[in-house]
Amino acid sequence: MGSEPSRVGYSWARASVVMMGAIFASRVLGIFRDTVIAYRFGQNELTDAYRAAFQLPDLLFFMVAGGALSSALMPVFSRYWENEQKPEAWHVFSTVATVMVSLVGGLVIVLELATTMAIALMFPGFDPMRHELTVVLTRIVLPTQIFFLMGGLMMATLYARKQFLVPALGPNIYNLGIIFGGLVLAIWLGIAGLAWGAVLGAFLGSVVLPVVAMARLGSHFRPCLDWRHSGVREVFRMMLPVMFGLSLPGVYMLVLRVFASSLPPGAISALDNANRQMQAPLGVIGQGVALAIFPALTTLAATERWTELRAVLKRGLRLVWVLTAPATVLLWILAEDISRVILQYGRFTPTDTGLVASALRGFSLGLFAWSGQALIARAYFAMRDSLTPVWIGSAATALFVPLCFLFLHGLAMGHSGLALATSVSAVVQMVWMLGVLRRRLPRDSGQDSTPFVRPVVLSGLSAVVMAGVGWWVHGLAWCGMSALGWQVNLSALVVLGLTTGVVMVGYLTMCRWLGVPEVAYVRRVLSRQRG
């Protein structure tokens, strides 16, 4: 690990800390955003319509702007950049940006005209009021996808140049825009204020911020339609497979909303709230590490240093799973307390909290799988193999839809069964992708002695032990809070903090005692960051 910066041109572990810190700030703002929405509107027909309004925009986001195109662009841009062909790198960027902004702009116009019909098809269980409100809100937020596309392409070039902070700050500004919409614009516009706040945040965070960073670092853009350039054709050839490989977590939520539209009002909002709570550790750990390691993987793949690539991937997966194990335990134990602290204010009732908590437990079981899948998929993309994640993802999706029917209707598990179906499919997909990747990775003359199975098993054992300890501490803490008679939100906050502290200290202590290397490694990296 000590020679890592010299091998890939930067420290991916230190970059992981930067990314996780910035994404953590984004998740904190996201929590405050959800608190504002819950306080102002509760969990009902209005919030169902607001969540459903992102269905059409999310389709565009996951297909084009949500990481697929930028992840297809980055390996190509990075290869030209690393080989000192910088004019070619900017030529590819300019062509891809010109073509895709024009295309997505046209699609946004078409979807604006077809919104009424599309919402009727996607949410057949909606009553007329929810349908009409969803149409209005959808038309407001659709243009944000143009901003996300522009930002995604610019941020891909920043990642390729080992610049991580500015791309990580974009979601913070987006969340601030929605918070502004909920606190200020909603006074006059009602729930439409949230939608207009999302538009403002997307423009500032995904367009203004990266444009300033690109100008400061020195970048070159000129409108261009050079379809015949080999690099441009490679980006577009990779885009569709990469799109499907990266978008499955979001696609699953789109499917869940459709199934949940037939459930009582509030089910869609409960699933979205629970998914956002699960996405907090997923974004901070899984996506943070994956985004930080991706440039290292592309550099090593471009130079065909396969033994080093395999070692970096193993360390990345170990780090991801060591950190997600206690997060899964805490999400399961503290499901109700998390929702009480974040959401149970104003119009948000204890019944609403119960709906969110049951869904969160279903989602939490798949946290380690989604976190691992985020990194494994990028290993494929770094190798310019974007087809394998597609057929594996297609098979996982083919399993997911029947599981939704089974858990929702066959087992009558309601919305929590939909969350559980998501986790089962995620585990199947991750295990399958990892098994195929082990066989597909080329081998060179180097010897890879990086340990993998033992640290993962030991961290899992530590998490299981601390799950029992945490459950006991949680029950004991609530007995104490009940005796004191404190207000429920304050009591939940105290219980949450106490249980989290005991579980994390116990988990890290046990991992260190068992010799899991990531504990000492993360501590060293954090010490360097403070220095």
What is the topology?
Elements: H1 4-8, H2 12-41, H3 45-52, H4 55-65, H5 68-82, H6 86-122, H7 128-141, H8 144-160, H9 165-189, H10 192-217, H11 230-260, H12 267-302, H13 306-333, H14 335-342, H15 350-364, H16 367-382, H17 388-410, H18 414-440, H19 453-484, H20 488-514, H21 517-530
Quick rundown:
The chain is mainly alpha-helical and 531 residues long. The chain contains 21 helices and no strands.
Kindly describe this structure.
This protein is an all-alpha fold and 531 residues long. The chain has helices spanning 4-8, 12-41, 45-52, 55-65, 68-82, 86-122, 128-141, 144-160, 165-189, 192-217, 230-260, 267-302, 306-333, 335-342, 350-364, 367-382, 388-410, 414-440, 453-484, 488-514, 517-530. The protein is globular.
